[in-house]
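Hallway conversation turned thread

IA: we were arguing at lunch whether anyone had actually written out DUF429 domain-containing protein end to end. Turns out nobody had. So, for the record, here is the sequence (294 residues) and right after it the structure tokens. Reply here if something looks off.
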Amino acid sequence: MNADRFAHFLAIDWSGAKGARQKGIALAIADARGGPPVLVERGRGWGREGVLAVLRDELPRDTLVGLDLGIGLPHADCGAFFPGEASSPPDAAALWALVDGICADDPHLGAQGFVDHPAYRGFFRNGTETGAQFGCDGAAHGRGRFRLTEHAQAAMGCKPYSNFNLVGAAQVGKSSLTGMRMLHRLRGHLPVWPVDPLPESGSVIVEIYTSLAARDAGRSIARAKMRSHEDLNAALVVLGSPTVHGRGPIDDHASDALLAAAWLREVAADARRWNPEGLTLQIARTEGWTFGAL
């Protein structure tokens, strides 16, 4: 990877919460020329539709965008996203279209319509029940199904959650499904690696997992969340980044985005990140991959 391939690095801490705006969304950008990462503020706060507008119409040139959400669902384990369901889509791009179509009446890029849909609700664990197909091929439910990239994350010491899980503070199901709606609406505007090949120039989206950024910044997985400027700045120094101004508490969504933006700038030129061992063409087009999971 050419060290000058990208001019900007935008990290987005995403949220699947209901409403027009989500406190869990934070954006931060780092300039390839140097300087500390900077939070991108937006009026009364960010909503998913506002982020979509930025990515579609306001993105600086040659930006590597890191989205903290799952761009796909497990496929390799059962040979399908929704085994036994005739409408199960063949690849990630078709999955995004399916989710967005079913949720067309859900406001603010919400995804409740999909998890409530009779054809798909049995694959999810929600707050009241665990669907009969939350596992695979009749296996015990356990923590649910995982993509190959999540197995790679676990091998690195992370504790990933299944994208079919909708329960608990660390659940990633709703954020991933709402993110898929946005990704569908960005088709033709922005490629999404590795579902799409990495273009030689221009901006591109990758999936990130902020715990990987914290790990590379010297934090343990158990201490991946940083809630003080002092902890954030110590991690930024490890990544070779200038520190940000401020003292005392900081929102962990903001710190996640700031650290991830600096991390993307530091590791984007590392060819290993773009060529993980488990990433095949079939996995790329169906499950996708988490940038930095080796």
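OS: looked through it. The longest strand covers residues 8-13.
IA: good, adding that to the notes. The two ends are 16 Å apart (CA to CA).
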